[in-house]
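#onboarding

Welcome to the new folks! Below is a worked example of what a typical request in this channel looks like: someone posts a single protein sequence, and someone else replies with the predicted structure as tokens. Don't worry about understanding the tokens yet, we'll cover that in week two.

Example request:
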Amino acid sequence: MKTNLLLSNKYKKLGWVLLIPSFIVGVVLLLTSFEVLQLKATVPVIYANGFFEDSIYFGWYHTNIVPTLVGVLFIIGGLLILFSKEKCEDEYIAELRLSSLLWAVLVNFILLLISFLFIYGISFTSIMLYNMFTVLIIFIARFQYLIYRNTKCITDEK
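Example response:
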């Protein structure tokens, strides 16, 4: 099977090394209202604004970069897992991969639709923040579950 878009299997381990700690730190940040870890830095921005601040276009902004770093590491880790080959990549694994991706997108948009209909105010903004990560989370969870179930069935047959 031709899999030009997939990375080598060794990148999957790196993906897990990035994803798991960033997920844990991200949950801790959410539970503590982003106050527990602070790393202030001045970063370049295209656009920034605050409640009581002037808008900044193409300038520098002083902020806590921990949430940004955690989000970037989570996304990179998730993408490395998503785009890394399995040890035995065949047509069936490709079918599981496609099925998991379709399933993740469908579930994500169902959750988004429910959010649009029933969540309002600042809570909706938080939901939209989480929604950036749900496709990756759902895909990885579904694909790994299908791989686990598939290998368990093969082991049980032997």
